[in-house]
Structure formats: C-alpha cells, structure tokens
Amino acid sequence: MSLTVVRTTLADCEQICRKALTKVGLPATAAGIVAENITSAERDGCASHGMFRLPGYCESLRNGKINAEAVPVSSFPAPGCVVVDAGGGLSLPARNVGLPLLVERARSQGVATLVISRAFHFAALWPDVEALAAKHGLVAFAFLNSKAFVAHAPGGVKPLYGTNPFAFSCPRLSSDGGLSEEPLVFDQASAAMARGDMQLAARSGTPLPPGAALDANGEPTVDAAAGLQGAQLPFGGHKGSSIALMVELLAASLGGDAFAFEALASDSGDGGPTKHGELILAIDPGRCGGQGREAFLARVETLMTHIEAEALEAGASGRSLRLPSQRRFQNRKRTPVEGIEISEDLYQRCLNLAGDDP
C-alpha cells in the first residue's frame, strides 16, 4: 500500500511542531527544544522520530500525563556524577540542563555520568551524544529503556523489555585538524526493529523482516499490525536479550525509575511516551588513557580511514559499505535544499494539532 506524501520544508516542520506543542500548554522554551528535536530527525531522514511523534507528544501533554510546567532540578551526588530530576516532564529540557554539567564534570574528572530520572522520552537517542563528540571531543554512550515491547529470547513470548536503545559517539578529526562536525555516531535499538519503524510499516502495509516479532499467540509473524499486538524480538536472539537487560538495569536502576514491565503496567495507552530513565556516560580522551587527545584522535582516524578505504573498494565492486551515521549526514546536507516528505494524513493531522488550515 503506497501513501500519498506531502513535500514541505524543515522550517515548516519546526513551525508546525512549535505551534502544536504550545497550543497544548508546553512553555515556549520547552516547545522550541522539542520542535527542534523533531525537525532534526526529519532533517536526517529518521521519520520514525520526526513528525510521526508529534500527536503522541500532544496527547500526553493535553491529558496531563506529562507535566508541562516541570522544571528540571540538578544535583551532584559525587564529583563525576550529575543527576537531573525531570519532575515528570519531558526528557529533552532535562537533557539540555544536564549536558553542560556533564561536560564540565568529564573535563575535571576524566569520566562522568548523567542520570536523567522521572522523564518522558519520545525522541531519537543520537542527539543526546552527538554534540558531546562533535563540539567537546568526548566519547559518549547513552542508554534508555521504555515500556515493555520486546520478549526475552530464547523462550519468551510476552513483552518484558523496552526496545532499549543505546547510542555511542566518538570524535573525529576534520580536514583542518579540529573536531569534525561529523563524528562517528550510532543509535540502535536492542530490538530487531525500532518500534516507530514497525508502526510505520503497519501504516503502509509493509511486511516485517523475519525474526522481528511474534503475534499475540506467540507465533512468528511478518505482519506489522500483528506484531504490534504481540511482542517484538531482540536482535541476535539471546545476545540482544543480554543487551536489552543491560540497558534496562543501567537506564532504570540508577535513577530509581520504572523497569519496562512496570512502565507498561502504569501506562495510560494514549500513544505518547512513558516515564522512565536514561544514563549518559562521557569520557574525556584527553584525561583518560595517558596518551592525550591528539594521539587518541590520530588512532581513531587510522581505523576510520582504513574502513573508508575498504568502502571505496566495495563501491567500485557494486557493494555498499558505509560507516554508521553516514546516511544521516548525507540527508543533513540534502534536506535543507530539497525539503522532506511526510505522509499526507500525518501532515494534515499535525496541521490540525497546530490549528492551521491545510
């Protein structure tokens, strides 16, 4: 089934999101942060975390599940530890409070952690780590759990874990010897497929890849709608389950937040985000390892250029070999000029949320 699409601009996307979010009571500053995040996902070709998320944000703000007026509060339980209590509000404003503090602590301690607790997270995870590498030269990890969607493997048939994404970023050198604006970044679910991608597949009638989901009877399915009613599967069988379990423990336990099965039990089912935890870890290569930042970055480039050389060979042979995030960076250059495509029904729904006429 093909969907009719609308081509629009990134500026239009951000304006629609900002208006819709403020209309349901989110203060202007927080609305701007979330609108920018949604737009950056569209800019980079990540439709599952772009305007597709706006109706869920708006519904959870409208019904009061998310505390629109929450003010993040930071604390420092140890020299290398930052905790930001989101107060039942959205995670993105809390993240923006915590990241500068994390950078400061990583610089002074060599390694630092940021725990974000009592937060509603509904966004892609790569923005939480990319700037740490691109702007500050830090190596960073992020771990996030969600409500239960994914069965344990082997043997499980009921949702137990979240899709539990984890992100990683590593700085790279630019051609002038400074920090590259395009570091190595990846953001991936521990599920075989991101939840948003499965929802988009259900809308378009696109079959799932084998091994992505079980139906409500615990049987394997490639029907996205049936998979949404059943359970997703981790990637790599028991290996993905181990990573999902690790993410669950890191993201939820440190801040005293809900595990996936607890978040599922308490969720209102409004289609919006659930309240859970996040851990971000930052390492300053200039302070750790004993060789200094320049030597570290030189070693990084030795590996990256080796991979890129093989990618050129692969391309000459008709094969595709690329580093993580390369496609996003390519989209980042293209979409400001060419615009973005949104399904017509989603675009109209977002216009309605913003109070705009088609």
Automatic annotation (TrEMBL):
Keyword annotations of the record: Oxidoreductase
Q: Name one GO molecular function term.
A: oxidoreductase activity
InterPro entries for this protein: Mal/L-sulf/L-lact_DH-like_ah, Mal/L-sulf/L-lact_DH-like_NADP, Mal/L-sulfo/L-lacto_DH-like_sf, Malate/L-lactate_DH-like
Q: List the Pfam families hit by this protein, alphabetically.
A: Ldh_2
What PANTHER family has UniProt attached to this entry? MALATE DEHYDROGENASE, OXIDOREDUCTASE-RELATED
Record-stated family: Belongs to the LDH2/MDH2 oxidoreductase family.
Supply the name of the protein. Answer: Malate dehydrogenase
